[in-house]
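Late entry, evening session. Most of the bench is empty. Finally got around to the prediction I had been postponing all week. Sequence below, unchanged from the version circulated by S.P.
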Amino acid sequence: MINRRDLLVGGGAAAAAYLAGSFVPLVAQNAPNFGAPSVVQVGYRRQQMGDMEVIALNDGVTRRPLAAEFVRNTPLDQVQALLRSQNLPTDYIDVPYTAFLIVMGNRRVLIDTGFSDNGGPTTGRLVSNLNAAGYKVEDIDTVILSHFHGDHINGVRNKAGQLVFPNAKIMVPTVEYDFWMDDARMAAAPEAMKGAFANVRRVMGGLGADRLVKFVPGTEIIRGANSLKSVAAFGHTPGHTLFVAQSYRFKFAYLADLTNIPQLFARNPDMAVVFDMDAAAAREVRRKVFEMTVQENMTAGGFHFPFPAFGRIEKLGNGYDFKPVA
């Protein structure tokens, strides 16, 4: 397990292993021999909540083999049994990617970006789904990033390096930005980890103060009758941040990568996915946030939830269950 000191100093072979290869999908590719996953035909879904509208925007899906290391603290046969009990495949998993657009009055806030044209053939659909929902890239005034894994930030720029959302300010958590943009940490990192640092610099490099806005996790981003608050949820990455949008009594919680596959990590929040950089912290915050969504009767959405990617979190035994909107 990567402990917090390893995270913050960026050293250690364990950190390198988790950040190499499939851990940070710089380019999303499907696993060979399992076929291509089905991409949803209508890749957006609207939900009116008070005076705000929440729109799920699917960026695509990738398929990867289910290997023993995917869940680090549970035997593979138990993981497969949990999937089988939900009538899901046991030799591979499909990982969807869904960002969310929050429309509040004249504000158009996109949370996370997907891949743009930096991924494989079954990704990069966010902009076309945004258009189908009635918006253009020029309409987005704010892009907020939950954390700096490639599937969340690569859509800020296309492969040519151009900004995809030309009128948007890019808002980032201070803790996450400081970790990945630290030159000394990058220089000291094992070779396998340097690609992740380099990708962050590809995306963030050249963003001046007029474009890049840093915020402290836990603070309000939009204030007023319609509000958007950030929620610190460190563990998946050093600055992993969630968001709660509220209009009157309606609350929408964007859970980012709180759980990679809800059929596993909501059902059993104590499982540790390979992508979590601090597994112990991630498990602790996972239970805390799931309980918050239940107690406060929130609608919840997750970046890797099955499309339409938002619905309700309900208690189920010692864990939780995700119930998508109808």
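Two things to note before I forget:
The two ends are 39 Å apart (CA to CA).
The chain has a mean pLDDT of 91.
Will write this up properly tomorrow.
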